[in-house]
Amino acid sequence: MRHLLVSAALVAALGSSSVLAADLTAKGSIKSMDTTKCTITLADGKVYQFAPKCDFSKLKENENVVITYVVKGDVNDASKVVAA
Asked: Measuring CA to CA, which residue among 66, 55, 62, 76 is closest to residue 32?
């Protein structure tokens, strides 16, 4: 019985952590881009942080985009941005 409870607890813990790490997407219009901080702010005011050495050269303000990200604490850690 004890092994069953430990196994169930382990499955529950692993299952919940994978849900938290799932990629999310945001759609919207670019309000601003900061190439120094590697951030994009959408029209709704939400800020998305990209990895250092980001390249936003193919994007422009007011362009509609889809951003793929995960939430890490208070940061929207973005991995991809594409024109919509």
From this structure: 62
Give the chain's length: 84
Q: Which of 57, 58, 59 is nearest to 42 (CA)?
A: 59
For 51-79, write each residue's pLDDT tens digit: 999 999 999 999 999 999 999 999 999 99
Angle at 75 between CA 69 and CA 79, to 5 degrees: 25
CA distances (Å), 37 to each of 16, 26, 53, 73, 80, in order?
31, 19, 9, 18, 16
Given a contact cutoff of 8 angstroms between Cβ atoms, the answer to whether 56 and 17 are in contact is no
Task: Give this prediction's pTM.
Answer: 0.75
